[in-house]
Amino acid sequence: MDNTRETLIEIEGLYQIFGPDAKNVLPKVKAGASKEEILAETGHTIGLQDINLSVKRGEIFVIMGLSGSGKSTLIRHFNRLIDPTAGKIKVEGDDIMELPVKELTTFRRHKMAMVFQHFGLMPHRCVLDNVGYGLLIKGEKRAEWKPKAVNWLETVGLGGYEDQYPSQLSGGQQQRVGLARALCTDAEILLMDEAFSALDPLIRSEMQEQLIDLQENLQKTIIFITHDLDEALRLGDRIAVLKDGKLVQVGTPVDIVLKPEDDYVRAFAKDVNRARALTVQTIMTADTSKLEGISAKDVRDIFPADRGHAFVFNNNAYQGVLTKQQLDDMQDDDLLEKVLIKVPTVRRTNLLQDVIPLSLNTRFDLPVVNKQGELKGRVEASKLADVLSP
Amino acid sequence: MDNTRETLIEIEGLYQIFGPDAKNVLPKVKAGASKEEILAETGHTIGLQDINLSVKRGEIFVIMGLSGSGKSTLIRHFNRLIDPTAGKIKVEGDDIMELPVKELTTFRRHKMAMVFQHFGLMPHRCVLDNVGYGLLIKGEKRAEWKPKAVNWLETVGLGGYEDQYPSQLSGGQQQRVGLARALCTDAEILLMDEAFSALDPLIRSEMQEQLIDLQENLQKTIIFITHDLDEALRLGDRIAVLKDGKLVQVGTPVDIVLKPEDDYVRAFAKDVNRARALTVQTIMTADTSKLEGISAKDVRDIFPADRGHAFVFNNNAYQGVLTKQQLDDMQDDDLLEKVLIKVPTVRRTNLLQDVIPLSLNTRFDLPVVNKQGELKGRVEASKLADVLSP
Amino acid sequence: MIDSSWLTEFPDMSRRELLAIRQSLDSAYRTFSRDYGESIENFFDPLLYFLVWFENLLIETPWWLVLAAIVGLVYAATRSWKLCSGVLAAFLAIGYFGMWEDTMRTLSIITVCTILSICIGIPIGILMARSDRAKSIITPMLDIMQTMPAFVYLIPVVMLLGIGRIPGVIAVVIYAIPPVIRLTNLGIRLVNQETLEAATAYGATPTQRLFGVQIPLAMPTIMAGINQTIMMALAMVVVASMIGVKGLGQPVLKSITNQYFTLGLLNGLAIVALAIIFDRVSQSYAKRAQKHLEGTENG
Amino acid sequence: MIDSSWLTEFPDMSRRELLAIRQSLDSAYRTFSRDYGESIENFFDPLLYFLVWFENLLIETPWWLVLAAIVGLVYAATRSWKLCSGVLAAFLAIGYFGMWEDTMRTLSIITVCTILSICIGIPIGILMARSDRAKSIITPMLDIMQTMPAFVYLIPVVMLLGIGRIPGVIAVVIYAIPPVIRLTNLGIRLVNQETLEAATAYGATPTQRLFGVQIPLAMPTIMAGINQTIMMALAMVVVASMIGVKGLGQPVLKSITNQYFTLGLLNGLAIVALAIIFDRVSQSYAKRAQKHLEGTENG
Amino acid sequence: ATSCGKVEIADMNWNSASLMANIDKFILTNGYGCDAELIPGDTMPTSTSMAEKGQPDIAPELWTNAVEALINRGVEDGTLSVAGKSLSDGGEEGFWVPKYMVDENPELATISGIKKYAKDFPSSEDPSVSAFYGCPAGWACQITGGNLFKAMNLEEAGFELIDPGSSAGLSGSLSRAYEREESWFGYYWAPTAILGKYDMVKVDFESGVDAEHYKGCISEESCMDPQVTMFPPSPVYTVTTANFKKSNPEAYQYTTQRSLTNDQMNMLLAWMEDNQADGQYAAENFMFTYPEIWSKWVNKDVKAKIDNALDSL
Ligand SMILES: Nc1ncnc2c1ncn2[C@@H]1O[C@H](COP(=O)(O)OP(=O)(O)OP(=O)(O)O)[C@@H](O)[C@H]1O
Ligand SMILES: Nc1ncnc2c1ncn2[C@@H]1O[C@H](COP(=O)(O)OP(=O)(O)OP(=O)(O)O)[C@@H](O)[C@H]1O
Ligand SMILES: [Mg+2]
Ligand SMILES: [Mg+2]
Fold first, then answer.
1. Under CATH, domain B58-87+96-277 is a member of which superfamily?
2. Which SUPFAM superfamilies does its entry note (chains C, D) (predicted)?
């Protein structure tokens, strides 16, 4: 991730306590009482406690956590659908708690669009009008937004359903209408609360691509709640993990998987399909020592002493693997290409899942090269085995 | 799967068409008009067409399919929440379309419990009363069912929330209340419509285990809709795949992954984490030729001619791998145990994901043994690589 | 006039025909009422005895005992001291302005009418919500009950039953019952289908669905119906007093004919006070039974 | 009597005090009406002129033209030929029984009253739904409007404005407006919070929320309020005629005092017919605007 | 007299009737040992109920013109009995104008003057016509008043017959005009609180009374050729059920005797008005103040009993 991006949303010391007398329960929470204690003692539920985080412009920020850990509550603070019990929420430096009603409305119209966990569709509007709702609210004419809405409906796979009402749709179809509504507004920031949870794998991965496209091409900032670790790892530039309303860890997908901060996050990341989550980058051994030459004598002196095999390059192009034994068996003038073993190269960005079959098919390390074909390192089967062992 | 199980639910020629004039649209659908055509022409939506399937007692039957393909519609026929446009639904041989109201009620009370996609909780009852609803309906006293309901609430991780109302819960918590309600009834058949979709991975896998326990210990029949292929493969004894209201394939998880009947199912199964979905059984090479002996001479004659290595057993216990070369280098009296390479064994039921690291760590095939330690076959790295290549 | 008069004047029935119809209908009814009045009257006797007994009870019991009983009941129903003190103040004022006895009479008859209306109205509303056929039959009847001027049916009722409490109760109930019926029907019809489906799936019988899901969820709307029924019942107090029901209606009528505005106002206010007390007590009783509505939005 | 009489008799105000209060209030009102009657009357003049003009229009236009216009309007509002033919039949019957002119008079005043009630009532209901403070102030006023016997305020109104259409309209509106206010309030308060939140999240202003979400979703309940308002308005026809409003109420009054049941019944039925027509037309117009309710359960 | 038992007395909602009812209640209770109860009710329902159901027993002040057919049928059928006149010289009906108008323009005291100055009585809803406030809808006087309106050609004179709908509407319009010293011309009757309170002048029809024509034509709805005539006194009777007459001859005897003159009644009404008294208070006051009037209605024994009761009050 690009660390130089500017901060877009900043949250400081955010508390949310549900109940009639939240203000008075706050000190107890600050004093460190647990969620169960507070619930049993006062009947109040802690939604969030002491949340500090910042979201950068253009990133996909994923929020994860147990059911009931406060994800929806947190995301609903970003556009101030609920007011915090305590704390600050700044968007582009402005404290949105202090926006007057009018500006808050403008802010919601232009800056943010939201996909709701329970969809939040309007039962009295047909699908098309639901999708165009955000634009309608801004005062655009139906004729203006209609093509756009139809277009988004088709993108989410609901072409032809324009005139149906939400109650006539299946759960996943309703969710997609909610998705299309959010995408149709052109807002800079997308708040997505389990936006893909009711989708089947095919449509879901299409939608994920769509989202990545949007982020890459239009620099949208996306805050995404999901329970699907694979999805989180696939989409997220950074991932935040919540537990009982507290922020436990914020980090890159790799950090979460490989450097969990506590047992909770470890348990959480345990089940992840690492082969799909991790790239070669994370396990490769940096090593640029290659053999350059055509015949045995060219390389005999530079063959690394501590290795059984090495990668042979010629004119900066990878040729294959040469074992120590082969070299030992060769005459000085024997051409290397006769004996070289064709072990395929991999790239640093390759997912492990693509690399595993390659590694299984050979006894040798896999060479890691960059775009230009320069050797950057190698993938050792044992390291791969390590990272894949649960 | 145990093929001798008796059939519990049987569905024959089921059609469901949504719209005011379903009966008249039916012939068109039977004539083969597509879902889009029907929608555009008549405004009717095809929910299901020509479904024939049977669910056996005690199995977990998973239904998958694109969003809007008719899964929820299908499951709601099992307890006759909607009446089909055409077709028969038999449970234990009785056509439930012909049950009188009273018997239908009894049937619903005792035979089936349902988890709804949109939870279907009662907003006016506290969580505890929601969980106990199924029992309350049967006429049980509150005092009788309360301990049970509390127990199930704790099982789904909601101890302490007894007195809250559904509107005070998060989405996943609501779903768990719905789950507890279904489990609390002791019904023989569980209908679960995306019952885990809003759950985080930790609770979700707990719930999956719970479900498998229930099925194994209490022989419950479970019909489960999910979008999560891994979940389907983990839970399902059989999986049915729907497309546009049609049944495309019904089969075991392995069939679906490895023998998809058409491109649709293939696309569907493409993204599956095969390493987690498949077991050693599916890829092992059956081969019981082992070397039995202590010293080199014991095995020199029986070493398979076409292999580079073989598995050495002693007293029916696996000892390790012996390569052809090692054998060639040894004296007749040399003890095998000195040179044997300790390649670990695997079992037929092991998931591939557990086997991959082992295979990566060795150049040799992995021996597959059964419970008694008898050799059943071996896992070749190349086959593993094959099945893992997308 | 010439024949084309229909262009400007509606070609109506001739006066003679109309008269004939009128006379035969009138005398037919008179014969009917003379023949069957007695037995119909007997049918209502138990209700009459109860009404008389209840009224006497309220009037003859010392006022402070009645007041204590009322406040006690209010507290039992609402658990709200605020409401209790309001009720107490209202009744003290009523007594102070010399309307205690009339108020007790009105209280007794209106209590009966309201309870009757609710007890008959809610089941009918439920029936209406369940069957479209029932709805299409009952709706026009409700329209008639609400808009047919009371006077039109009061005189026949008086011919049948004489003046007094029974025709009064009938008139009040006829007029006051439609809102609770209509709104019960509406409330039940608006209940969320998914919740209802969940109940069905767990094998709830129609009765269990009704009492366990539909009515509780329709409660806010049903309570609006009950509120309107109470209002209508008290609005009929004056009309009832025209056919022999004692109570606050009569001083109102008298004060009007004699232009004693203040007297009318005071008695009118006593009626209003009764209405408000009835309403607030029933509403807050219902609210106590629906705690779930306090929970706010959803996560 | 001895002092402990308060045990059995309510210790009420002495007659003299009461008298003093009554007399001073009465005469205060008299003075007020003398001083301000004129200007208040002038305030209502435009409404009066409109009422007179509208009534004359309906009466003086040839009946078939009026009938055609009514049926046309009904069709425009409901697009239902069934309803149109019902309306036609009802009006033909009304004409045939010689009640055309009275019906036109009642139609004119009730149309105005209903439209006034709805146009004033819905905004007040909205206000009530938005602010708990407003609700707590308005509710008791509605209680008073519904239960204070019409006569109590009618006579002062008559003293202020004379008899005739204006006090009639005031009386009808006062009595008929509460249901639509109450049910608008209830309907809006019952709107699903999630849907509303979605609107907020997309930056809907309070007005957009109101007209885009709250009112459409509250429509079934608001329509129940309108239905009740129509019923109440027509129920007041007879009361209005007691202060000199011409129309179907007068023959009803006449028939009562003369025991012409049939006449009363016919005129009563004409009132009922008007009520049903008003109601069905408004309901079916509203239903046309809420197609979404046709979609049934959820998948 | 202990056998008198339960007696129900109709308590109508105008002052004179209510006063009569309360007087009857007092005397029947204390003088005849009856268990008398007042039953509220309007003229029409009450008389219907008496004729058809024999309940209540006594209507102390019934303006029989209003319900003539009903009473006649009741008497014929043997269910009702006309006991006596409650107002000995009958009710007084007429068309009235406020005194202040006559003071200003004495011509207004006669019908010809009224017609001449019709413009002085503008209708409030349509000032281009003049207003004549008729009798409330449905009352007998609606027919008589209507016929006289026709007979006097008031319509040609520019008057419109306004139906005030109810006595409350009629009196309301009268007080409104009187309080503001505006013009008013309309039907009214006496003795009433209103005419006691407001100084009104009965308009002279300049025709005298033609009782026969009045009965034969003016009071008929089908009167083809109405002629001008002043209202003859309107009969105001005490009506009882036949049952009451049979089972309580003594008490019935009293009801035939009990009667007040218009002057007496006007005086009592004025007192009621001044004190805003209700019927019961006024009746007690009457019993205390005017023993010479009521003692003529009863025999000595009864009078003694009543005096006794008055002493202990
Ligand atoms: N009440 C209804 N009225 C009209 N059409 C309906 C109704 N319910 C469902 N449908 C249609 O039937 C089809 C199947 O819906 P169903 O809810 O069974 O889908 P599903 O497979 O459960 O999808 P999902 O995974 O999104 O929940 C959809 O195309 C939907 O539009
Ligand atoms: N309106 C409310 N009133 C009371 N408690 C609430 C309310 N909304 C949320 N909560 C509580 O706040 C906590 C966090 O809820 P939230 O909806 O944010 O969870 P979540 O992380 O989104 O969970 P899920 O993954 O299940 O959607 C929960 O314990 C819930 O009970
Ligand atoms: Mg959530
Ligand atoms: Mg579904």
1. P-loop containing nucleotide triphosphate hydrolases (3.40.50.300)
2. MetI-like
What is the DSSP secondary structure assignment for residue B341, as one 8-state letter?
B
- Whether B137 and C299 lie within 8 Å, measured CB to CB: no
Asked whether the ipTM of the predicted complex exceeds the cut of 0.85, the reply is yes
Could you tell me if B125 and B159 are in contact, meaning their C-beta atoms sit under 8 angstroms apart? Answer: no
pLDDT in tens, A24-41: 999 999 998 888 888 888
Residue E310, min C-alpha distance to chain C (Å): 23
For residue A229, give every residue at least 6 positions away whose Cβ sits within 8 Å of its Cβ, in sequence order, or none: A64, A268, A269, A271, A272, A273, A277, B201
Describe the strand order of the beta sheet including B375-379 as a list of residue ranges.
B285-286, B375-379, B366-369, B346-347
Would the pLDDT of E169 be above 80?
yes
Ligand 1, residues at Cβ distance < 6 Å: A 168-173, 198; B 18, 45, 47, 65, 67-73, 117; D 296-297, 299
Residue C171 located in a structural domain: yes
Select the CATH number that applies to the domain covering A285-388 from these four: 3.40.50.11540, 2.30.40.10, 3.10.580.10, 3.30.420.40: 3.10.580.10
The pLDDT score that the predictor gives to residue D291 is: 61
Question: Would you list the domain boundaries of chain B?
Answer: 58-87+96-277, 285-388
pLDDT above 90 for C113: yes
Domain that holds residue C267: 58-63+98-290
- pLDDT score at C3: 54
> What's residue D191's pLDDT?
93
Question: Looking at the 3D structure of chain D, how many domains does it have?
Answer: 1
Q: Is residue C3 part of a domain?
A: no
Pocket test for ligand 2, best of A69, A74, A196, A225 (most atoms within 8 A of CB): A69
Over residues E273-310, the pLDDT tens digits come to 888 788 888 999 999 999 999 999 998 999 999 999 99
Amino acid at D12: D
Q: For residue C263, which of D179, A15, D175, D25 has the smallest C-alpha distance?
A: D25
- Report pLDDT for B315: 83
Enumerate the residues of chain E whose CB falls inside 8 A of the CB of residue C33.
52
pLDDT at A181: 95
Chains that touch B (3 or more CB pairs under 8 A): A, C, D
Q: Which two tokens stand for residue B45?
A: 């939506």
DSSP per position, D221-279: HHHHHHHHHHHHHHHTHHHHHTTT--STHHHHHHHHHTT-HHHHHHHHHHHHHHHHHHH
- Please give the distance of CA E92 from its chain centroid, rounded to a whole number: 8
Question: Between residues 242 and 261 of chain C, which touch chain B (CB distance below 8 Å)?
Answer: none
Q: Read off the pLDDT of each residue in B347-364 and give the average, rounded to a whole number.
A: 88
With contact defined as 3+ CB pairs under 8 Å, the chains touching A are B, C, D
Handedness of CA D53, D58, D62, D64 (dihedral sign): positive
Residue the block writes with tokens 């007790």: C104
Contact E160, D164 (CB under 8 A): no
What is the least distance, in Å, from the CA of D296 to any CA of chain B? 9
In ligand 2, which atom is closest to the CA atom of A45?
A: 5
Ligand 2, residues at Cβ distance < 6 Å: A 18, 45, 47, 65, 67-73, 117; B 168-173, 198; C 296-297, 299
The confidence score (pLDDT) of residue B148 equals 94
CB atoms within 10 A of CB B211: 23
B133 touches C: beta carbon within 8 Å: yes
Kindly report, residue by residue over B266-316, the tens digit of the pLDDT. Answer: 988 887 888 888 888 888 888 888 888 888 888 888 888 888 888 888 888
- Asked if pLDDT for residue A67 goes beyond 80, the answer is yes
